[in-house]
Amino acid sequence: MQRRLRSAKLTTVHDDAFVCSSITKKENIDETKGKKRKRPANKSRPERKKARTTSKSIQEDHDVSKDDDVRAEKSNQSNSKFGSSRGMNTDDVMKTEPEVQVDVKSVPMKAETKAGTKPLYVGAHVSIAGGLENAVFNAVSIGANCFALFLCSQRQWKKKPLSEETVEAFRTACEKQGFSSDSILPHGSYLLNLGSPDEETLAKSRDSLIDEMSRCQRLGICLYNFHPGSTCGKISVEESVKRIATGINLAHAETEGVTAVIENMCCQGSTVGGKFEELRDIINMVDDKSRVGVCLDTCHAFAAGNDLRTKEGYERMMSEFDETIGLEFLKAIHLNDSVGDVGCHLDRHENIGKGKIGLQAFKYVMNDPRLRGIPMILETPGNVDDATEIVKLRGLAEF
Ligand SMILES: [Zn+2]
Ligand SMILES: [Zn+2]
Q: What three-state secondary structure class fits 327?
């Protein structure tokens, strides 16, 4: 196989335009912010008492110190909502759980709707602080029935190998908490630029994609979401698109059962994938169409020029998606309001209903039968806690 595992000489000249628009997100790995939280009343399984809460782990386009403050605040808000158990030692969660061999694909979906209809999946990007399996309990603690997570550090190319112990702990946690493999949407490293003009960055990105999709396979996760990449203003969009598709084909050759889920972008700088046509062109060059799809980010779509504030505008976006890409390729949604106005080309997330998109658009999303059964993930700032955001969104659903 053509897999290239080059000795990774870290470079500082990689793909500035791409990194600038995306690297500002960060995973909160500060253990001291972890707080134990009681379960919501309607979830009574004893093992969930072990759920630990960390604050929202993904942030966009804010400075780091502000992020930390906001996350701490969000964590506190969450605790007061569910009852705070601060000061308790929550380390070594899962350490006492018996080891069970679990086929995650056999885990039943949570039935949230009437029999015969696909479930409404609403969740958020959760922290993996203290261990990958903690993401599962963090998701439970905010009332999510789907979730996103980082699989490892987002700031280094070199990653710690995934231990068999972690794999078992994660699979067991998913099985116990009832998360099916298609309700989990890992978010790829922000260092990735599969469309890079730089050969070294390209090689490292391709290796990283293979590595992370292999991790998904071992963890029993069938979706893997990532940003397509950037031309960095040095090559054509067509060339970048070709490189991205090649990267996906290489990863497909090395993995099984994991779908590469490309995220739509907001046409910021030299990023690729802001236009549905670009996503279509990538998919067209992927050999195995059964393992490629799209994650539609509402903020990115709006910032790219899709005005989903009216029913007509929302339907126009969905039919354009269908006509250009095909709704069968829609595998996930990122639920974000937008700081910037329609067509602003800025990747700035806002809390649901607090930005320029507004609540009405999310009502269309929550009531769209085409979006049932696919994970819908919040990546909103820490000003509002995820549990509140989820309750708000679910409240918009009429069926
Ligand atoms: Zn993203
Ligand atoms: Zn974004």
A: helix
CA–CA dist 274, 254 (Å, integer) = 28
Question: Is residue 96 scored above 60 in pLDDT?
Answer: no
Starting from the CA of residue 187, give the closest ligand: 1
Write out the CATH class of domain 16-396: alpha beta
Q: What does 155-217 look like in DSSP terms, one character per residue?
A: S-SS-PPPPHHHHHHHHHHHHHHT--GGGEEEEPPTT--TT-SSHHHHHHHHHHHHHHHHHHH
Residue-range domain boundaries for the chain: 16-396
> How does pLDDT run across 39-80, given as a tens digit for each residue?
333 333 333 333 333 333 333 333 333 333 333 334 333 333
pLDDT of residue 154: 82
d(CA 37, CA 39): 6
Ligand with an atom nearest the CA of residue 347: 2
Residue with tokens 């969740």: 123
179: CA distance to ligand 1 center in Å? 21
User: What is the C-alpha separation between 48 and 43, in angstroms, rounded?
Assistant: 8
Mean pLDDT of 132-141: 98
Annotation says 252 is catalytic: no
Distance CA 177, CA 49 (A): 12
Note the pTM of the prediction, 2 decimals: 0.75
